[in-house]
Amino acid sequence: MNAMKYVAIFGICALCAFGADKLEVQAKTFNSDDRAGRTELKGEVFIKKGADKLWADVVVILTDKNRKPLEYTATGKVKFYVETQDGRKINGSAQKVVYDTINDEYRLYENAKIQEVDSPNAITGEFITLNNKKGQAYSEGAKNKPTTLIFELNDNDEKK
């Protein structure tokens, strides 16, 4: 590998690294502008941090002046897997996903779906917000397609 490739790999790792977890980033191409605080990854993008994973066609990462990521915007057949603070495992998909690192919030657009692993719990809609920090979800349907919520009721009262 030539020196420029080493600089590019170091730059993306330094740009994206935050917290104690290792960040793994893969893409066919990447373009980074430190002054603008913007990195663009294109082509079979895969990002992994801890147990969380993201797959997309394109990912744009916006950072502050200290290179700390503020927002990830993934577009084109986006899929992700996250583990919530309360231990639930969530799969999601949409045409566009925006992750706000400050508020720990995912916003899913177009054919959005969130499915809890090993559970019937699911939300589908044209727009979904999942806030990991607050443990909140919000969903909107499209003009001719309502949002759908499926959840399992935990009935602790035994029938007598």
User: Would you list the SSEs in sequence order as H and E?
Assistant: HEEEEEEEEEE
Oligomer: single chain
Question: What's the CATH topology label?
Answer: lipopolysaccharide transport protein A fold
Based on Cα principal axes, name the global outline: globular
Largest sheet: 10 strands, antiparallel
Strand content: over 45%
The CATH class name reads: Mainly Beta
Residue share in helix? under 10%
When the domains are counted, the total is 1
Mean pLDDT across all amino acids: 82
CATH architecture: Sandwich
Task: Describe the structure concisely for a colleague.
9% of the residues lie in helices and 56% in strands. It is mainly β. It has a single domain, classed as Lipopolysaccharide (LPS) transport protein A like domain (lipopolysaccharide transport protein A fold), CATH 2.60.450.10.
Task: Describe what you observe in this structure.
The protein has a single domain (3-150), classed as lipopolysaccharide transport protein A fold. It is 9% helix and 56% strand. It is mainly β and 160 residues long.
Helix and strand layout, with pairings?
Layout: H1 3-16, E1 23-26, E2 29-33, E3 38-49, E4 52-63, E5 69-83, E6 89-100, E7 105-116, E8 122-131, E9 136-140, E10 148-150
